[in-house]
């Protein structure tokens, strides 16, 4: 079983990497980009039967800093 964990900074948290990407896109001539938020995707290979509760526990304890980040689990 595979799971993808999508981690993003929460709204209102400064995203310097996103701002750098936005600026770089403008410098390359890409107009109309009003905002960029950068995150990460973590792919997990899990034993069959691993519960979504266990995956959420992994996120809460290690994979996401829940003070400033939100996450979404996608089972694939």
Automatic annotation (TrEMBL):
Protein's pathway: Purine metabolism; IMP biosynthesis via de novo pathway; 5-amino-1-(5-phospho-D-ribosyl)imidazole from N(2)-formyl-N(1)-(5-phospho-D-ribosyl)glycinamide: step 1/2
Intracellular or extracellular location(s): Cytoplasm
GO BP of this protein: 'de novo' IMP biosynthetic process
A single GO cellular-component term on record: cytoplasm
Keywords per UniProt: ATP-binding, Cytoplasm, Ligase, Nucleotide-binding, Purine biosynthesis
Keyword hit for NAD: no
Reaction catalysis annotation: N(2)-formyl-N(1)-(5-phospho-beta-D-ribosyl)glycinamide + L-glutamine + ATP + H2O = 2-formamido-N(1)-(5-O-phospho-beta-D-ribosyl)acetamidine + L-glutamate + ADP + phosphate + H(+)
Enzyme Commission number: 6.3.5.3
Statement: the UniProt record of this protein carries the keyword Transcription regulation: no
Function field: Part of the phosphoribosylformylglycinamidine synthase complex involved in the purines biosynthetic pathway. Catalyzes the ATP-dependent conversion of formylglycinamide ribonucleotide (FGAR) and glutamine to yield formylglycinamidine ribonucleotide (FGAM) and glutamate. The FGAM synthase complex is composed of three subunits. PurQ produces an ammonia molecule by converting glutamine to glutamate. PurL transfers the ammonia molecule to FGAR to form FGAM in an ATP-dependent manner.
Record's subunit section: Part of the FGAM synthase complex composed of 1 PurL, 1 PurQ and 2 PurS subunits.
Record-linked PANTHER family: PHOSPHORIBOSYLFORMYLGLYCINAMIDINE SYNTHASE SUBUNIT PURS
Protein name, UniProt field: Phosphoribosylformylglycinamidine synthase subunit PurS
Species of the source: Cognatiyoonia sediminum
């Amino acid at each position: 079983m595979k799971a993808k964990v999508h981690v993003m900074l929460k709204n209102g948290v400064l995203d310097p990497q996103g701002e750098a990407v936005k600026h770089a896109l403008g410098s390359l001539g890409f107009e109309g980009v009003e905002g960029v938020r950068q995150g990460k995707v973590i792919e997990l290979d899990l034993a069959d039967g691993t519960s979504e509760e266990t995956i959420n526990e992994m996120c809460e304890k290690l994979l996401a800093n829940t003070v400033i980040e939100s996450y979404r689990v996608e089972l694939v």
